[in-house]
Structure formats: structure tokens, C-alpha cells
Inverse folding.
């Protein structure tokens, strides 16, 4: 009788130990994926409307930019410059890359010009206007430095973006938005805009 009880107690202990090991393994895999492969992000606010709405949830690809450079048109998540609401690198913004290293960018007459030519943004409604900001002032052309990217929100009248704080360093880019998974009716890959 005692022998049977010891045997049963041993098998319960083995089951519990196996369960704990499985949980630790799953959590370890999750942490590795979150740190190096992909992470979830919530869109807060309407700065990317009509492309994204407040409370949309996205998966951000953290792997692609380890092997290739960000491209014009990519929607990226990056560590935001300091504001009154959050210290430097505490908050993340989601914006679209408009200017890549070496581009000459100018905002004039509520339009964006890149390398001397009007930048046509067919993914935006025609009534969208691009006002200058604190960094990109009306009619002044600025070159995007090496390893920096100019990122703007799609909803230009309601976006704190590169017009105010300038281009962002590549090492502040967390990754590329690649999948919207919430709300379910909007589920799908985030399209890359080609220019």
C-alpha cells in the first residue's frame, strides 16, 4: 500500500515538474520572439488615419531591418523624441517613411517636395495638406542625414511627426508594421507603398 502511494506521489511530482518546464519553455520562446522577431503595438490616436484608426492593433516586424534598410513608404514604429507626456525613448510612434538618407526635403504650399520634385502621395485623400512645422519650415530644403529617416503621419493636420522634430535615427526604429490583427474586419497585411 505504501509503495503504491509513493509511486503515485512520484508521478504527480513528475507531471507538475513537466508542466512547469513546459511553461518556462513557452515563456522563453515568447520572450525571444518579442525581443528579436515581432511585437504587438496599439495605434493610439488618429495620426495615421485613414490608413489606421485609434485602437488598431498591429504586429511589428523587428527582423527585416537587421538585413535590409527601411524604404520610403514603409510604416514604422520608432522610439519617440521626448515630449511633456513621456521621456526620450519611453513612447513609441507609428508613422510612414517619407524621406530616406540623402533626400532633399522641402515643404512648400502645403505640399512635400523630395529632391526638387512634388512628392505624390496617392495613398492619401486629395484634400490632405501638409503644413510646415518647427523643424521643416515653409520653403526651406533640408537634407536627410546618413542613417536618418523622415517620418510623417498620414493625417497631417493631427500628427506630431518629423515636421516638428526632424528625421529620426535608424537605431530608434523598432521595426516595420506588417500585420493588422484588430479589429477583425481590418485583419490583413500592412501594404507597402511603392514610389
Amino acid at each position: 500500500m505504501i509503495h503504491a502511494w509513493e509511486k503515485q506521489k512520484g508521478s504527480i511530482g513528475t507531471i507538475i515538474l513537466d508542466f512547469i518546464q513546459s511553461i518556462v519553455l513557452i515563456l522563453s520562446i515568447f520572450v525571444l520572439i518579442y525581443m528579436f522577431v515581432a511585437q504587438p503595438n496599439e495605434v493610439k490616436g488618429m495620426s495615421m488615419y485613414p490608413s489606421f484608426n485609434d485602437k488598431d492593433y498591429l504586429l511589428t516586424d523587428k527582423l527585416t531591418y537587421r538585413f535590409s534598410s527601411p524604404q520610403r513608404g514603409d510604416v514604422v514604429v520608432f522610439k519617440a523624441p521626448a515630449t511633456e507626456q513621456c521621456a526620450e525613448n519611453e513612447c513609441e510612434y507609428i508613422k510612414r517613411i517619407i524621406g530616406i538618407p540623402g533626400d532633399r526635403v522641402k515643404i512648400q504650399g502645403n505640399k512635400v517636395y523630395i529632391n526638387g520634385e512634388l512628392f505624390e502621395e496617392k495613398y492619401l485623400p486629395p484634400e490632405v495638406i501638409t503644413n510646415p512645422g518647427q523643424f521643416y519650415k515653409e520653403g526651406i530644403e533640408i537634407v536627410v542625414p546618413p542613417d536618418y529617416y523622415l517620418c510623417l503621419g498620414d493625417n497631417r493636420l493631427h500628427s506630431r511627426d518629423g515636421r516638428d522634430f526632424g528625421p529620426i535615427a535608424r537605431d530608434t526604429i523598432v521595426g516595420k508594421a506588417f500585420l493588422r490583427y484588430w479589429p477583425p474586419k481590418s485583419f490583413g497585411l500592412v501594404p507597402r507603398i511603392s514610389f
About this structure: The first strand starts at residue 38 and ends at 42. Residues 1-36 form one domain. The chain has two domains: 1-36, 39-189. The two ends are 78 Å apart (CA to CA).
